[in-house]
Amino acid sequence: MPIEQTEPKKKYWEKIRELEMTKFPEFKNIEVYTPPDTKEYFYFSPSWYFHAGMITEADVKDLIRKDSKILSVGSGPAFLERMLADLGIKKENIILSDINEAVLPKNFKYFVFDMYGKWNIPEQEKYDLIIFPESTFLHERYEDDIEKEKALYGLISEALKHLKSGGEIRITHNFAEIDKYIQSVRERLTRESNGVQFIENNKRVLTVKMI
Ligand SMILES: C[S@@+](CC[C@H](N)C(=O)[O-])C[C@H]1O[C@@H](n2cnc3c(N)ncnc32)[C@H](O)[C@@H]1O
Q1: For residue 1, is pLDDT > 70?
Q2: Atom of ligand 1 nearest to the CA of 33
Q3: 75 CB near ligand 1 (under 6 Å)
Q4: Cα 88 to Cα 25: distance, rounded to the nearest angstrom
């Protein structure tokens, strides 16, 4: 009897990779795209975020099932967020934001503000998930550890004002030394007892959960 050859099961991020190659030709050959008309920013493919673990298949199912609201801070042209809408998350539940209005797709609800300043979002707006997809530039903006720690604390505190209980904040980063100042940020947030349950760093993704 011939032995049946079975294809190895595709990981979810690999499925997303296939989808994005058709949906976004920018990422056909590479997962980071630099628009030719600007040297300012580069953008990341949706699969890149699934691969990094910032968002998982279980998250997508959960977000759909619970009708959850997401805020993306520094979404840029929102490749990830547009893919999430294609995967079944309601478009009206995906809110974008950026410092630069010009890059934001106009067919989504969005806010324009500097994440390091006062957030231009009505106080009553609350989200289940707040993501910072490759947008903080913490390691480039600030020189010393004290400044970085202060800036990280500021970002999390501002995001917490708009997080529902049980919600999560997820920040992607690529700076190894982040562990140095997460501890003090965690201690400070715990001391202020504003409902923060944990701060966890998983290689590329920092997660903050609200009780
Ligand atoms: C590297 S791009 C990533 C964009 C998108 N999240 C992605 O994954 O393709 C960084 C984005 O963050 C935005 N950004 C940079 N500094 C910001 C700030 N201080 N406040 C809000 N957005 C900012 C930029 O305008 C840009 O769209």
Answers
A1: no
A2: 9
A3: yes
A4: 21
Q: Determine, yes or no, domain membership for 27.
A: no
Higher pLDDT among residues 10 and 177, named by residue: 10
- pLDDT over 80 (residue 174): no
Amino acid at 97: S
Residue 6 pLDDT greater than 80, yes or no: no
169 belongs to a structural domain: yes
Residue 155 lies in a domain: yes
Q: Is residue 80 in some structural domain?
A: yes
Residue 69's domain comprises 53-210
Tokens of 102: 């010009």
Overall domain count for the chain = 1
- 169 versus 173: the higher-pLDDT residue is 169
CATH, residue 158: 3.40.50.150
pTM (two decimals)? 0.94
The confidence score (pLDDT) of residue 38 equals: 67
* Best probe residue, ligand 1, of 98, 108, 116, 134 (max atoms within 8 Å of C-beta): 98
Q: Average pLDDT for residues 181-207, to the nearest whole number?
A: 84
Cα of 191 to ligand 1 centre, how many Å?
Answer: 31
Residue 81 CB contacts under 8 Å (≥ 6 apart), including other chains: 70, 72, 75, 94, 96, 108
Is the CB of 50 inside a 6 Å radius of any atom of ligand 1?
no
d(CA 179, CA 175) in angstroms, rounded, equals: 9
